[in-house]
Amino acid sequence: MKDEILDEIRNQVVSELIKKRPWISELDFQVESQSFRNLSSGLGPFTELLKRANCTDLFINANHGVWIKEGTVLNKIDYLIDEESLINFIRAQALRVGKHFDQAHPAIDLELSGGIRLHALLPPLVEHGVHVSIRINQKHTHPGLNNLYREVITLIIESKRNFLISGGTGSGKTTFLSHLIEQIPENQRILVIEDTREILANHSHMLRLQARGNNSEGIGAYSARELIRQALRMRPDRIYLGEVRGSDVLDLLLALNTGHEGSGGTIHANSPRDVPNRVAALAMTIGIPREGALALFASSINLIIHLDGKRDGNRISSISQVVARENSVFVEEILSVFEDFSLENFLALKKALS
């Protein structure tokens, strides 16, 4: 319905353009028409680039060129984008959500259509002109993965263990979380909490809560912490936080201690053993002592699923369990995955979760 309405609006605008400028050449008309279509799609000057099937990131470094990341490869490409048009597009998208992008507000985070994340900076924060970083949501189908991969996902869901999915930027944490959510039975109520719409899971009883920042007047913010508290009043079976990145770690861990089995989220970490320290560091930013944060972590999280973003296909490199012993917290590896899951991997995990 939305696409049909947009097409109708486009047709009306094109008709008015022809009436007011009957002398326009066919080539100019096609350029103007495509420009309007791109703008109305919500992607503006990025439309053609973002059509690339494997595109995950796009970087515009003012007059230093355009770079695109497809899969695990980052390349510089020849692509001209008019800076004035680019800035005007970003300003229009900012106004849509009550924000400004100008010399007084030279940094902005936005969500474009389809959950595409845009970050932009203006001088004097950067040199030479506008710098744009775009993160593109990926379809989370994984052709070529063996059946054991899917059985592992089912095993994790059926075990109802709370988990954190760890890894670096672009390692596929959100994609894997989407895989897990899709395997949850439809008679379970799922609440997903995100800063930006990234989780692409197809589940008939999944509700989305999305945080938001202040508008240009400095009001209207609603944090992930507050959304977690709201989620607890909505009687979910499972709660998932798109990314643990700040003080929301406390509310997530507290929520996981209230009976929401099989819940979790994603977190940035270089290795599974770094996860407890990262959780403790985030909790300490709001005054929670390290010992208390680790104790809460150990009582809330059962598994750490670590991903390797340098791999194609299966990115799970290890699955570990969290163990509290003698007033300390340990991360003990259950299995390490070399390339793809083997029967031995599956049996080891099944034994650990039984």
Q: Could you characterize the architecture of this molecule?
A:
With 354 residues, the protein is of the alpha/beta class. It has 3 domains: 1-40, no CATH class; 48-135, 2-Layer Sandwich (Beta-Lactamase), CATH 3.30.450.90; 147-353, Rossmann fold (3-Layer(aba) Sandwich). Helix content is 34%, strand content 23%. The protein contains 10 helices and 14 strands. It has an 8-stranded mixed beta sheet, sandwiched between helices. Strands 3-2-1-6-5-4 form a 6-stranded antiparallel beta sheet, with helices on one face. The longest helix has 19 residues, at 2-20.
For the structure shown, list the relevant keywords.
3 domains, Rossmann fold, globular, 23% strand, 14 strands, 6-stranded antiparallel sheet, alpha/beta, 354 residues, 10 helices
Please outline what is shown here.
The chain is an alpha/beta fold and 354 residues long. It has helices at 2-20, 26-40, 83-96, 147-159, 173-182, 224-232, 248-256, 275-284, 290-300, 343-353, and strands at residues 55-61, 66-70, 73-77, 107-111, 117-121, 131-135, 163-167, 190-194, 206-210, 238-244, 264-268, 303-307, 316-325, 328-336. The protein has three domains: 1-40, no CATH class; 48-135, Beta-Lactamase, CATH 3.30.450.90; 147-353, Rossmann fold, CATH 3.40.50.
User: What structural class do the secondary elements suggest?
Assistant: alpha/beta
Please report which band the strand proportion falls in: under 5%, 5-15%, 15-25%, 25-35%, 35-45% or over 45%: 15-25%
What's the arrangement of strands in the largest beta sheet? 9-8-10-11-7-12-13-14
In CATH, the homologous superfamily of the largest domain goes by the name: P-loop containing nucleotide triphosphate hydrolases
Helix content: 25-40%
- Contiguous runs where pLDDT drops below 50 for at least 5 residues: none
- CATH class of the largest domain reads Alpha Beta
Number of domains: 3
The assigned CATH architecture of the largest domain is 3-Layer(aba) Sandwich
| Amino-to-carboxy terminus distance | 47 Å
Q: Which series of helices and strands comes N to C?
A: HHEEEHEEEHEHEEHEHEHHEEEH
CATH topology of the largest domain: Rossmann fold
The Cα radius of gyration reads 23 Å
Please count the beta strands (DSSP E, at least 2 residues each): 14
